[in-house]
Structure formats: structure tokens, C-alpha cells
Inverse folding.
């Protein structure tokens, strides 16, 4: 039977070129395919060879499978077209017959997903990279004649399908051309079915000789398999060839005439997701470019003398000297005396403490990583971009003098992380570390940490034994023991303003605790309000605000005005005491509000981490903080202790309160409970006799070491060189807490055991958990954590009664956070089931 040349309606293709987007579409298609092939051939070639040699049942199978995946992913990734398949391939081996409209048919047929070897024209084997895959995939060349058909017969007998384009050339008008070749006789002889596959849409997308490309809307229609048994005998192959062509032509006409479309073309969701991902990547790149170009703080210009940079650090006794500036270690605490203009003070400060600066920055960056969830690298990058955008206007809220001091710090330092953002930008933002951490406390990019806080108070008049004004505070910050061990007492004689003393860390131009030469003392505690820490808010870092109070204020009124008039972006409260006025107040400041809280009892004002003024009574964030954190509990315990000592306060009484580790009513709640005023987490603790102009600063660790005496007024009056020569005696210091000086080692080890216990619980490893819990009992028997892990161990050992007892015991020991209490209650319910 002779095939008629036209059995399907001619369907002229649209004009060539695809419009002005045709060439970019074609280029993107070639580029995408090239990237896929380069990735496969130059990255995965060796693994593919090994898998094909040792794991595949048939040589070439791995490479043929890779070809199919390349084609599938091409249509998934290519954003300008679609591919959908109608019908299913048979489960066994078959001869697959495809029509041929365009070179895109190569990818379309591969995307069919058939486990087949092709009888392909020689030009396919000469294609760059893809041709190599055809060779490695053990496909057959059509030009090999009978030998190729013999190999095809072997493959069919082994269960591998054969695929071919028997038209032999591309159809210029889209009709099914006469089918040629010995494939049909091969199918009859092997007894395998013939499966016609109609490809539509490739010819309209990419025509012969066309440089441009239209969006390929490709349809693969798999027709029903045609069994070859009825075609055995003379003329059977010719009849089979004609029937196959007729079915393909009819199916092609049906595809073209049908108005039925899938509601969602194949691959649309994938391409939409990939498009969204591409837009996201582009947006992230845009943000990164924006951050680098517009959000990195530029150092200020400095035209003053840099003579200090030409000098070497000298020695005077046990002190280092640089010009009139000096540094020494006294009683285990570093003292740094700074004078001159802002740049000189910053430069000298950095030159005196290079080792501490490196250790602190390394530890701070490591601590930031601990806050981040997995995957840390991308999350860290996102966080840095977000902070960069949010803080892009931070320099606008920093005075020129403050910028120059930070510039001096930078020029006196070594940049140990040169691949990061410039050092000036980093140091400026380190001064806002407190603010940034509070801004991010509810961010999904940050793993929640303990909601710790600081405790302080001031007493005067009838509350004290001699009527003087005393202030005491614990600065709790779990950033690491390096900030406790490397604390610095700074003596500052600025060119402009009031000299002052403050306690902080190396490289710190700001302040959190200090006293000035006019008898103004200030300490800072963090808080939470609804208008605090919103993305897009920016203001002055609170450490610089405290420094301004010390540098400028001579009265409480002036201090309050400075605080009220300074824009901030997080909420904090400021305990401000004045020797001349013999009183203290707490200024509660949020980004949108400011209130001054006076003493609720004559001569006493308490300072925790919540706002008490009526202006914040309806603030939900403040209420939530009181409910979930430790601030109310510590405030309650502080009130008990202050009431007990009312009228008898001396500096030693203040120290006793700062070292209190009990719960309300003197309850034993174990060591390290964050409900305690002293939870062994403070990085500095200070007692001030504001009236006398003296402070005592903890030498560490935490509050258990001695507190060294600092005669603030005498030191500041003596100027740098006179202050260096002042003599202190050990008996003037406040003594160590000998009861707990060595017990703190147990607390440190106990916290390590807590981590180990959590790891053992993850694995439900009783053998590993049991000795850990025993060790916890020996070190901190009355801690709620000990009872909790005893309960968890009892549950693993299937002792529910013992577990209930331990969980009830844990709840009775005042766990510090509501989330912790909820977890213990949940386990108590499980033990009761």
C-alpha cells in the first residue's frame, strides 16, 4: 500500500522570528540548555561513568536517564513555554514512532520519559555535549542500516524500547510526511507493539533557519499501542506503516482543531515558583547592592592632629601610657583613662586593649550565630541585609563628636574580619548592639533566648543610715563570660562637657552605668513596649544616650530633658540619681513616649525591666513581658529585701541585695535561677555612694569576687596624671563572697550538664542521661531543672508516679519563664495519663 503524501490538513506556521522577543527567547533557551549540559558533563561525568559501569543493568542506561532529566528540567526551568503530555506509555518494550517538526523535537521526545534507545540521525551525535551524551547513552545511528536494526532487535528483546523519527526530515508545514525505514518490520519481527507519539507545537516555536523563537507550547500525545501480530505476512509492514501514519495525522488534526485546553498547562506551577524564586533572588541581589552602596556608614572627616598615632605605648609602673592617657589592671579590673578630643580618646582606648577587642568581636559574632536557626549562613546574610537597611540612617542620630570617637577606635584597631563590612560601619553598629538585639527579639530569623534582665535600685534620706544617696545595680547580659572578665572602668576627661566615670567594655564609646563629676549617676535597664523595635525605626543607640547624660547633665531635670528629647528605637528605663538633689527617678522611655516615675515610698525607687508609670498601664507588650519574663518576680523579691533594710541602708547592705540568690520569701530556688536578683549572669555589678562620689565595681566572676573601690570625684578632680598616681588600699574594697566564690564553678558545670541532658533526651538515651542527672543532683539539688530532668528520666524508665512527683517539685521551685512552666505542666499531664 502506497502512502498518500497528504493525509492531514496543512497548517501553515506563524511568521518566523517570534517578534522582537524572539532572539532573546532563543538565546535564553540555548543558554539554559548549555548550562545544564555543562553542569552534567563537567561536574557529574565521573560519578555517571562509575554508576553506569558498576550499578546499571545495561550500559548507557545512566546517561540515557540523565538526558531525559535534562529535557524535563529544561521545560520546567524555561520561563517562556510549556509542555504537557496526553496519554500513557505501555509498561513493556515498544517501538515509539514520533513525528518531526523542529529540532526542539529532540528535547520534547526526551521529555516523554520513555526508557528507550533512539535510532537517531548522525547530526544528533555531532551536537556539542548533547551528542556526547547520545554516544554514552548507547543510542543507535540511523545510517548504520541493517547492523543498527539488529542492535535495535537485541534491545527490544532485552526489554528496552526503541524510539525514532521515521519521517527523516522536519515538516515545513506541520503535516505528517511519509514514514520510512525498517522499523515497522522490526516491530513485527520482534512481536513488540508500535506506539505512535504525536508532537505538536515545536514547529511553530522554532522553524528551520530561524534565529528567533516563539514561546514553545508543546503537546506530546501518546496514542494507543498498535499490536503487530495482525500484520505478520507479506505486505504487513507497509500496512502497519500506513495505519500508523493515518492515526498520527488524525490525532494531529484533532490537537489543532480542538479548543480544549487544560486549565493549568503542564509546568505552570513549577515555572511560576521558579519565576518567583528568580524574582526573590533578584530582589535579594538588589537589596545587597543597595546595602553596599547606600547603607554602609561612611567614616567622618577628621582634620585634627594625629600626633598620638605616631607615639608608642609606654610604661609607668604597672600602667601603659600613651600621651596623657593610661591603662592598668587593678584588682582584676582594667582601668582606662582617656582625655583629649574625641578622636584621641577613641584612638587611645583601642591602642590599650587590642587583645580584648579581638576576643570580644570574635565572641560576639559567635554568639550571634547561636541566636540563628538553621541554615545559619543564609539566615545570617538575610539578617545582615535587614539590619543594614534598617540602620542606614543610624549616622544621622550620632553626633559628629561621637562619630569621631568611633573613628579613633577604628583607626587604633586591627580589622580581624576584613571580608566583612568596613570596620567603621561594624563598630558604629556594635554601639547599637543592645538596641538591635531588642529589635530582633521577636524576629523569625532569631532563635529565642532567655528573657533575662537587670536589677537596680536607689535609696536615700530616711531609707539610709546616714541619709546619703546610694545606687546599686546588676547588669545582666549572657553574651559570654568574656564581657565579665574583660570589663573596663573608663575615666573620661572630654574636651567639652563634664568628666565622668563609667563601666563598660573595650572599644565602647557609649555607657550603661556611670557617674559624672557633678554627682549625676545613671544606669540603664531594657524594657518592652508596643512601639519598640519595629522594622524601619531608627534612633540614637541608648549607650550613646547614657553617655550624653553623663557628659552634659548637672541635674535630674537636665538628664530627663536629654533622655526625652533624644529619639530612640527601643524601649529602656534609666535610673537617674543626683547627689545635690539627694533623690533619684526612673525615666521610662520608648520610641513614642517618655514618662518620669518618682519614688513610690519615700527614699526608695526600684528598677527592674518593666514600665510602672500610668502612661504604660495599657501597653500590651509591657504586660506580656511582666507575665512571661522574670521582671515582676525580681521586683517583688527586691521590694522584700529593701523593706527589710529600710532605714538601715549602707553600701554593704546594697551589696548584700545584689548578691541575693533566693526566691520570694527567702525561698531556696537553686543556683542560677533567673528569678533571682543574682542569677550568676551579670557582666558587671556596681554599688555607688552618690553623695560621697564613690563607686565599687565587681571584679568577677559575676558578683562573687571583690568589688574594687573607685573614688570618682577625686579621680576626676586629679586629671589623668594625678589619677594615675592615686593610691588605693585593698581594705577599701568590698570583700569576696567566700561562700559562693568556689560554688560558682558548680554553677558553670551545671549549665554544661543542662545542655548534655537535653542532648541525651533527644536520643532518649537512658544510660547517657542517668549519670548526668545524678551529677546535677550533686551540684544543684534544689534547682527546678534538676527536678525536671529527674522527671524526664523517670518517664523514660516507665515510672510515672516518680515522674509526677518530680514535675510537681519542679513547679514548686519557681521556674523562671512562663514557657518553661508550660512545658513542665505539659509533661506533668503526660505523666498523669
Amino acid at each position: 500500500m502506497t502512502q498518500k503524501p497528504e493525509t492531514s490538513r496543512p497548517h501553515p506556521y506563524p511568521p518566523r522570528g517570534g517578534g522582537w522577543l524572539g532572539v532573546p527567547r532563543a538565546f535564553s533557551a540555548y543558554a539554559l540548555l548549555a548550562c545544564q549540559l555543562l553542569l552534567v558533563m563537567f561536574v557529574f561525568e565521573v560519578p555517571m561513568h562509575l554508576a553506569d559501569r558498576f550499578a546499571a543493568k545495561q550500559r548507557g542506561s545512566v546517561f540515557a536517564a540523565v538526558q531525559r532529566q535534562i529535557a524535563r528540567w529544561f521545560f520546567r526551568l524555561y520561563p517562556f513555554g510549556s509542555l504537557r503530555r496526553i496519554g500513557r506509555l505501555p509498561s513493556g518494550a515498544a517501538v515509539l514512532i514520533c513525528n518531526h517538526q523542529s529540532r526542539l523535537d529532540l528535547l520534547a521526545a526526551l521529555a516523554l520519559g520513555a526508557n528507550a534507545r533512539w535510532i537517531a540521525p548522525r547530526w544528533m551525535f555531532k551536537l556539542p555535549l548533547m551528542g556526547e551524551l547520545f554516544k554514552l547513552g548507547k543510542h543507535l545511528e540511523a545510517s548504520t542500516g541493517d547492523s543498527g536494526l539488529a542492535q535495535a532487535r537485541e534491545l527490544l528483546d532485552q526489554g528496552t524500547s526503541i524510539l525514532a523519527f521515521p519521517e527523516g526530515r522536519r515538516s515545513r508545514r506541520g503535516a505528517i510526511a511519509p514514514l520510512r525505514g525498517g522499523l515497522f518490520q522490526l516491530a513485527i519481527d520482534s512481536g513488540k507493539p508500535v506506539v505512535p507519539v504525536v508532537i505538536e507545537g515545536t514547529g511553530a516555536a522554532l522553524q528551520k533557519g530561524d534565529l528567533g523563537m516563539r514561546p514553545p507550547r508543546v503537546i506530546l500525545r501518546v496514542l494507543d499501542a498498535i499490536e503487530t501480530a495482525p500484520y505478520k505476512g507479506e505486505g504487513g509492514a507497509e500496512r502497519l506503516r500506513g495505519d500508523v501514519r493515518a492515526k498520527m495525522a488524525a490525532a494531529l488534526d484533532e490537537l489543532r482543531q480542538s479548543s480544549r485546553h487544560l486549565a493549568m498547562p503542564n509546568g505552570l506551577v513549577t515555572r511560576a515558583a521558579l519565576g518567583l524564586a528568580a524574582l526573590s533572588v533578584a530582589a535579594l541581589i538588589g537589596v545587597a547592592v543597595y546595602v553596599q552602596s547606600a547603607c554602609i556608614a561612611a567614616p567622618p572627616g577628621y582634620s585634627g592632629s594625629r600626633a598620638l598615632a605616631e607615639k608608642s605605648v609606654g610604661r609607668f609602673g604597672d600602667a601603659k601610657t600613651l600621651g596623657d592617657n593610661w591603662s592598668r589592671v587593678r584588682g582584676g579590673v582594667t582601668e582606662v583613662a582617656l582625655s583629649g578630643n574625641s578622636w584621641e580618646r577613641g584612638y587611645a582606648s583601642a591602642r590599650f586593649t587590642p587583645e580584648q577587642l579581638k576576643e570580644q568581636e570574635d565572641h560576639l559574632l559567635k554568639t550571634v550565630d547561636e541566636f540563628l536557626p538553621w541554615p545559619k549562613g543564609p539566615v545570617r546574610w538575610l539578617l545582615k541585609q535587614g539590619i543594614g537597611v534598617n540602620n542606614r540612617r543610624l549616622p544621622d542620630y550620632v553626633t559628629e563628636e561621637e562619630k569621631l570617637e568611633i573613628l579613633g577606635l577604628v583607626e587604633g584597631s586591627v580589622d580581624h574580619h576584613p571580608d566583612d563590612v568596613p570596620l567603621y560601619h561594624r563598630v558604629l553598629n556594635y554601639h547599637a548592639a543592645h538596641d538591635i538585639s531588642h529589635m530582633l527579639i521577636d524576629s523569625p530569623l532569631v532563635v529565642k533566648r532567655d528573657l533575662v534582665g537587670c536589677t537596680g535600685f536607689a535609696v536615700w534620706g530616711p531609707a539610709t543610715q546616714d541619709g546619703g544617696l546610694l545606687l546599686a545595680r546588676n547588669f545582666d547580659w549572657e553574651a559570654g563570660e568574656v564581657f565579665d572578665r574583660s570589663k573596663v572602668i573608663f575615666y573620661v576627661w572630654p574636651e567639652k562637657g563634664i568628666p565622668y566615670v563609667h563601666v563598660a567594655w573595650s572599644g565602647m564609646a557609649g555607657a550603661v552605668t556611670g557617674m559624672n563629676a557633678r554627682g549625676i549617676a545613671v544606669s540603664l535597664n531594657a524594657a518592652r513596649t508596643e512601639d519598640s523595635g519595629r522594622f524601619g525605626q531608627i534612633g540614637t543607640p541608648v549607650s550613646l544616650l547614657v553617655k550624653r547624660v553623663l557628659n552634659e547633665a548637672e541635674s535630674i531635670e537636665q538628664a530627663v530633658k536629654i533622655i526625652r528629647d533624644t529619639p530612640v528605637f527601643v524601649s529602656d528605663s534609666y535610673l537617674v540619681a543626683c547627689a545635690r538633689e539627694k533623690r533619684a527617678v526612673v525615666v521610662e522611655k520608648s520610641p513614642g513616649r517618655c514618662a518620669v516615675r518618682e519614688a513610690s515610698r519615700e527614699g526608695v525607687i526600684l528598677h527592674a525591666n518593666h514600665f510602672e508609670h500610668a502612661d504604660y498601664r495599657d501597653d500590651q507588650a509591657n504586660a506580656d513581658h511582666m507575665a512571661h519574663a522574670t521582671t515582676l518576680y525580681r521586683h517583688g523579691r527586691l521590694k522584700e529585701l529593701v523593706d527589710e533594710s529600710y532605714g538601715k541602708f549602707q553600701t554593704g547592705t546594697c551589696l548584700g541585695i545584689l548578691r541575693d540568690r533566693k526566691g520570694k520569701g527567702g525561698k531556696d530556688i537553686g543556683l542560677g535561677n533567673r528569678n533571682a536578683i543574682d542569677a550568676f549572669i551579670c557582666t558587671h555589678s556596681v554599688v555607688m555612694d552618690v553623695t560621697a562620689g564613690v563607686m565599687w565595681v565587681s571584679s568577677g566572676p559575676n558578683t562573687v569576687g571583690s568589688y574594687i573601690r573607685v573614688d570618682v570625684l577625686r579621680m576626676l578632680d586629679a586629671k589623668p596624671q594625678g589619677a594615675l598616681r592615686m593610691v588605693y588600699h585593698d581594705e577599701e574594697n568590698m570583700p569576696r563572697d567566700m561562700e559562693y566564690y568556689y560554688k560558682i564553678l558548680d554553677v558553670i558545670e551545671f549549665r554544661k550538664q543542662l545542655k548534655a541532658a537535653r542532648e541525651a533526651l533527644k536520643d532518649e538515651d537512658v544510660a547517657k542521661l542517668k549519670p548526668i542527672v545524678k551529677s546535677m543532683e550533686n551540684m544543684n539539688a534544689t534547682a527546678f531543672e534538676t527536678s525536671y530532668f529527674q522527671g524526664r528520666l523517670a518517664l523514660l524508665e516507665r515510672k510515672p508516679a516518680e515522674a509526677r512527683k518530680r514535675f510537681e517539685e519542679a513547679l514548686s521551685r519557681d521556674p523562671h519563664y512562663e514557657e518553661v512552666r508550660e512545658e513542665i505542666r505539659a509533661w506533668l499531664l503526660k505523666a498523669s495519663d
Summary: Residues 4-11, 259-267, 443-448 have pLDDT under 50 and may be disordered. DSSP finds 30 helices and 24 strands in the chain. The chain has three domains: 21-266, 315-357+449-739, 743-832.
